Amino acid sequence: MKARILWIEGKRANSPSFVPSLRKREHDVQTVETGKAGLAALSGYDPDLVVVHAASLRSNGKRICNNLRQLDDRLPIVLILDEGVPTPETGANVIATACPYCMVMMTDGLKYKNMEKMIKNYDIAELVVLALGL
User: Fold this and answer.
1) Taking burial as the number of CB atoms within 10 A of a residue's CB, which of 31, 65, 88, 101 is the most buried?
2) Which CATH architecture has domain 4-132?
């Protein structure tokens, strides 16, 4: 069974989107350009996963994630942040990076802060695969 993914990504994405690759693998991906549109899309679309590309929205994603959590507290959410943006208080216990160097730096930072057991660090592609149970 292929996954249903709601992908919230603005027009200002600085990195290539993973949407074409996911569609090529025959996943059902619905894209919207704002958090408000993403919340509205949940009423008619029952996704297995939501990806919030906050960096493309020029946001830290906190309000979007919190609003999504209010609608469905069990829905897996992947939050993509821009480099240097502090992690918002969303209750997230996973950080995803799209750059191997950023992943190494984030892992080192988590170890330095003794947080590697509380917060997990994944590559974004690896996280999407895990979230979809592939």
Assistant:
1) 65
2) 3-Layer(aba) Sandwich (3.40)
